[in-house]
């Protein structure tokens, strides 16, 4: 990498922590080190700081501060949401007291009466959801994995038809981490609400990137992670609507109102809150800039490289997401060549990096194995420039040409087309 510019286009995997975020966190590693559960003043100051951070994050979602529970990240939040709902709402689960179901408007009785062992999710979820569903299936729960259309969008009629009297939970990600497709979350929330079913969304990729309103979208639970929006790693949160009964995920002390034990990660919470503040203050301009770069990259690639295919919805996608399949090319080889040129990209989710199997998301939208294997994901950040995008497109063109020149399949195809 010496002497080469670093062009980072893997923001869906993680993002650089903003200097302002690091600056906000530093005092809580040194001078402001008190344990928020202690009674003396330096500890109570940290407790007050956590309350302030919780309020800021809640406001970003149009939620109440007592509905935000800090976690170690998105995967923990996903696990907690699914396992806790399964335990609390299964047909032989714990009884729900009236205190948990008061004052929730039109859904007053929704969370207290629904009982069953059926969960609905999709085939394109992050593995934090899919593997948790597999865990629950081994413990007697039934899971319906919905198909999606060729753009990765959930079909609302298929979702409605999948609902059963014993359905207790619908979990659909807000936006896909690989292909960037944004789901019709409001419509899904309305369906869940009309059927008195709890609705969880994995918003790890969407939170801080696009506006989210949990009230408007009828969201009951939402997962988010700090390091996806220029915050620190190791911190995230789970939004739990007041009235949803879930038990503790980590047992021990009384932190997080008794639902998640363990001394609070004060520096991480402060960093998450600061990153959230910056993300929402800059969202409009950042979205506009990223969409312009995204569309420029997509348009150039599709126009200038034959046998290339955009994966995901053309417009209903995250502002920074580009996922392209190149026929007659191995995606892993492309990534190595891009890395040699100083360009960081990925083949899909960082959590499945190194797998020899094609992406489950790309297979779910109908791509055959060979084309799925030729896919790369480029996810932009606001530090990227249009000049960098043009440089990356030129390198992709060059590398696709080199790889196809070495491909017997491409040679055979060109001779017989």
Short description:
It is built from 14 helices and twelve strands.
Layout of helices and strands:
Blueprint: E1 7-8, H1 19-25, H2 41-61, E2 68-71, H3 74-89, H4 110-113, E3 118-122, H5 127-137, E4 142-146, H6 156-162, E5 167-171, H7 185-194, E6 198-202, E7 221-225, E8 236-240, H8 266-281, H9 283-304, E9 308-310, E10 321-326, H10 331-340, E11 343-344, H11 360-364, H12 369-372, E12 375-379, H13 386-405, H14 408-416
Parallel strand pairs: 1-11, 3-4, 3-5, 5-6, 6-7
Antiparallel strand pairs: 2-8, 7-8, 9-10, 10-12
Helix pairs in contact: 1-8, 2-8, 3-5, 9-13, 10-13
Question: In words, what does this structure look like?
Answer:
The model is unreliable at 93-110 (pLDDT under 50). This protein has helices at residues 19-25, 41-61, 74-89, 110-113, 127-137, 156-162, 185-194, 266-281, 283-304, 331-340, 360-364, 369-372, 386-405, 408-416, and strands at residues 7-8, 68-71, 118-122, 142-146, 167-171, 198-202, 221-225, 236-240, 308-310, 321-326, 343-344, 375-379. Helix 1 runs antiparallel to helix 8 (266-281), helix 2 packs parallel to helix 8 and helix 10 packs across helix 13 (386-405). The longest helix has 22 residues, at 283-304. The chain is built from 14 helices and 12 strands. It is of the alpha/beta class and 417 residues long. The protein starts with 6 loop residues before the first strand and ends with a helix.
């Amino acid at each position: 990498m010496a002497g080469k510019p670093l062009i980072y286009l893997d923001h869906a995997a993680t993002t650089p922590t903003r200097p302002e975020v690091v600056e906000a966190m530093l005092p809580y590693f040194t001078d402001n080190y008190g344990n928020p559960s202690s009674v003396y003043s330096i500890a109570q100051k940290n407790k007050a700081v956590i309350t302030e951070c919780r309020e800021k994050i809640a406001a970003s979602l149009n939620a109440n501060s007592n509905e935000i529970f800090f976690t170690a990240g998105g995967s923990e939040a996903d696990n907690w949401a699914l396992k806790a709902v399964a335990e609390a709402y299964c047909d032989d689960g714990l009884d729900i007291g009236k205190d948990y179901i008061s004052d929730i408007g039109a859904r007053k009785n929704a969370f207290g009466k629904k009982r069953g062992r059926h969960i609905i999710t999709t085939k394109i979820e992050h593995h934090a959801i899919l593997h948790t569903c597999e865990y629950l299936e081994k413990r007697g729960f039934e899971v319906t994995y919905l198909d999606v259309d060729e753009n990765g969008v959930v079909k609302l009629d298929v979702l409605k038809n999948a609902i059963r009297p014993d359905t207790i939970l619908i979990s659909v990600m807000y936006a896909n981490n690989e292909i960037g497709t944004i789901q019709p979350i409001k419509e899904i929330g309305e369906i869940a609400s009309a059927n008195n079913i709890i609705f969880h969304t994995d918003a790890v990729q969407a939170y801080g990137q696009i506006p989210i309103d949990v009230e408007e979208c009828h969201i009951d639970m939402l997962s988010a992670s700090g390091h996806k929006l220029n915050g620190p790693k190791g911190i995230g949160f789970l939004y739990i609507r007041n009235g949803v009964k879930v038990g503790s995920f980590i047992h021990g002390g009384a932190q997080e109102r008794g639902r998640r034990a363990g001394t609070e990660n004060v520096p991480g919470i402060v960093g998450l809150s600061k990153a959230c503040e910056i993300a929402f203050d800059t969202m409009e301009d950042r979205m506009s800039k990223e969409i312009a770069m995204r569309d420029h990259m997509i348009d150039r690639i599709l126009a200038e490289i034959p046998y290339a295919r955009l994966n995901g919805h053309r417009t209903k996608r995250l502002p920074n997401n580009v996922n392209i399949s190149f026929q007659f090319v191995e995606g892993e080889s492309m990534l190595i060549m891009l890395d040699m040129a100083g360009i960081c990209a990925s083949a899909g989710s960082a959590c499945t990096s190194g797998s020899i199997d094609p992406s489950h998301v790309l297979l779910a939208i109908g791509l055959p194995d060979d084309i799925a294997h030729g896919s790369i994901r480029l996810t932009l950040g606001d530090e990227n420039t249009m000049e960098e995008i043009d440089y990356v497109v030129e390198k992709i063109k060059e590398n696709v040409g080199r790889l196809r020149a070495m491909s017997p399949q491409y040679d055979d195809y060109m001779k017989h087309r």
